[in-house]
Amino acid sequence: MDGSCKHFISLSLAWLAFLCLYFTFVSAELQRFQQPVKADGSLSFLVIGDWGRKGAYNQSEVALQMGKVGEKLSIDFVVSTGDNFYDKGLASPDDPDFKDSFTEIYTANSLQKHWYSVLGNHDYRGNVRAQLSPILRRIDSRWLCLRSFIVNTEMAELFFIDTTPFVDEYFRNPKHQKFDWRGVIPRKKYLRRVLKDVESALRESVANWKIVIGHHPIRSMGHHGDTKELIMQLLPKLEAKNVDMYINGHDHCLEHISSITSPLQFLTSGGGSKAWKGDFHYLDRDEMKFYYDGQGFMSVELTQTNARIAFHDVLGKVLHSLDLSKQLYTAM
Description:
Elements lengths: L2 H24 L4 E4 L8 E6 L10 H15 L3 E4 L16 H7 L10 E4 L10 H5 L2 H5 L3 E3 L3 E4 L3 E5 L8 H4 L14 H18 L4 E5 L14 H6 L1 H6 L4 E4 L5 E5 L6 E5 L18 E5 L3 E7 L3 E8 L4 E8 L7
Parallel strand pairs: 1-6, 2-3, 3-4, 4-5, 7-8, 8-9, 9-11
Antiparallel strand pairs: 2-13, 6-7, 10-11, 10-12, 13-14, 14-15
Cofactor: Fe cation
Family: Belongs to the metallophosphoesterase superfamily. Purple acid phosphatase family.
GO molecular function: acid phosphatase activity; metal ion binding
């Protein structure tokens, strides 16, 4: 075989490999992770958002109470709603902020479980690939952060969505902020794929509880308020697929808003460190169930047919709780 023929074959194989990677990328479904439940079939977890400040702004105090509640509930994992590291995410996989704001803060035995995390807008202001890097899992095996993914359990599916690229302001008027959009551009194509994958996953889900998690609120009376892009593009899909809860951070508060058009509950857990006292908007009384402008976190307990959600303050006190129930889902 002469040299030109070998060169042609090498190019053909390289092109074939590229096509395989390309079609895998454009048609890839959301990555799924299996999470076992307890022996009695129940599940419990904590939710924390907007936290990574090296222990400052009561982050360490919130972490202490998370450890106590986590032990009491024998939690199975922790959910982070984003803005994991302030002020500009991580600079690299070996950024000391990872240990200073995560490993050395959440030290309770009960918190040594998987941490399923999404990216917030402040995380996008750093090196996004650093925070997504598997290297961090070698530093602290609890850490799992992807753009969008699914956690499967026997009774519930948790759909994690990358919401930051939905917000027009970050592209049109970033002010003095610089975002790491690698992996997102071209934006319209990226958003179409996210919405398609989420809608497909929700349609195929047979879980009794469907919980969607993103950084930005769909509905909120906090500082940032409603996210109009999510109301227009995401909310109709969640309501059509009978999603039970949408959980977010971004607003540095704890809040519960109940939809008046569907069973969907809007739950904000963004009080992991710095809070914004007195910074809120008023909502319709029928929708607004609870608002707290201080630090804290959320706990969730699930069985096949019942859910209990509680909001805890910086002292661990339960400020508000809600109980949900539903019939056991049976596939046709």
